[in-house]
Hints:
The complex is a heterodimer of chains A (about 230) and B (about 260). Chain A is α/β, with parallel strands linked by helices and about 230 residues long. Chain A has a single domain, classed as 3-Layer(aba) Sandwich (Rossmann fold). Chain A is built from eight helices and ten strands. Chain A has helices spanning about 40-45, 90-100, 110-115, 130-140, 160-175, 185-190, 210-215, 220-230; strands spanning about 1-10, 15-25, 30-35, 55-60, 65, 75-80, 145-150, 180, 195-200, 205-210. A six-stranded mixed beta sheet of chain A has the order 6-7-8-3-9-10, sandwiched between helices. A four-stranded antiparallel beta sheet of chain A has the order 2-1-4-5, covered by helices on one side. The radius of gyration of chain A is 18 Å and the shape is globular. Chain B has one domain. Chain B starts with a helix and ends with a helix. The mean pLDDT of chain B is about 90. The interface of A and B includes residues 45, 49, 71 and 101 of A.
Amino acid sequence: MLIASNVTKTFGKLKALDNVSVTCNKGQTIALIGPNGSGKTTLIKTMLGMVVPDSGFITFDQHNILHSWHYRERIGYMPQIGRYPDNMTIAQVMDMMKDIRKSNVLDEDLVKEFKLPALAQKKMRTLSGGTRQKVSASLAFLFNPDVLILDEPTAGLDPLSSEILKQKIIAEKEKGKLILITSHILSELDDLVTEVIYMQDGKLQFHKSIEQLQQDTGQVKLTQAIAHVMKTH
Amino acid sequence: MRTIVKYVMLDLLKNRIVMGYTLLLLVISFGMFSIDANSTKGVLSLMNIALIFVPLISIIFSTIYVYNSAEFIELLVAQPLKRKALWLSIYCGLALSLSLAFLIGVGLPVLIYESSATGLVLVISGLFQTLIFTGIALLASVKTRDKARGIGVSILTWFAFTLIYDAIVMLLLFQFSDYPLEKPMIALTMLNPVDLSRILILLKLDISAMMGYTGAVFSDFFGGKLGMLVSAIVLLLWAMVPVWFSVKQFQRKDL
């Protein structure tokens, strides 16, 4: 469904992505794992067209995403650090997004569960980091997209909200959507993911199913399996 | 695209600086016209406002606005929108609200005191300055990542068009005063939208007689139909080319 082929991107001297090729299919829940600065967010941003690769290309349902924008209707993206216009209220941001997407089928589960309507008139600049994350998460799920791209979704969320979000991800996974998650809290990913992509220094180290990874490393838990991988790489 | 223009406009019309700018222009314009009974003098003073102050505000305000909208832009590029449409919407929003401010602040008093062809040329020139310098601001802000540097580039560009360019032209004139420079002067004028507008307004004021032989050549060229047409096309190009380059740049920009 979402295929990156030989994607390379450099920022000055830094090679953020070095000939990365990945294939993501419908129904998979993929964990994107790697140390800080390994190119996870850059990979996600190239998939969204926010960063233009130097070479290589990305296709979404067999269509090259370069110069295309319609495909983003089918993606819900939750950024690592949600940045919003300071002087808009939560309600205004939500309304603007609805205005842009013009979608009638809205999934407001998260909006309700995070109790955002009570905060609707608050300006974005007054929000705490956690509340911003809640807004980002609600927006990512709001339009019932086929693909969910979540960059560190639970960073900054309290345990209760974190659990709400996790349950929501599981619910969407069951509907057969493609979900891409990056996270450093591996224990959280354990009962969520079906595949693991491991990146280091902008290079793709491996892309395996979770069963394969467990077999190769002899570890059951994702935390231990990845620790094993990090030691040997 | 209309949706985004709507949001940018809503944001800008609430903006205190745009409101202050409108009021300031209004006060200056009425002031200039009431000082003297001769409204031609008022037009002359307003010409300097429209050709120096308006470009300055347009370029600096637009540059700062684009940098301050970084979050807004970042949020929207991940949405199903064409980048080109997003960028042009920001340009349209800025250009429309600044033009509106100029129309109210200068257009209205001119309509009341000096509703002649001269007044019309003055207002159109001011509108062109707004469009042109907003476009240059967009190009400056898309090219430089750093906000302070971007604003610096904008101020320097404004300086270049309003002061440095004239100084260079003067220097050339004196250095080559032995040669016939009238035709090259026309070409040089075309390269600077501020100078071009100034000459168009001055010629309408019929004081070109005081400008000697060069003035006569100018009057001959710019006064004719062809000159008017060429000037209009050049001003339009000035309004469109920087915006076009900024769109190209924005489409390849990493966010």
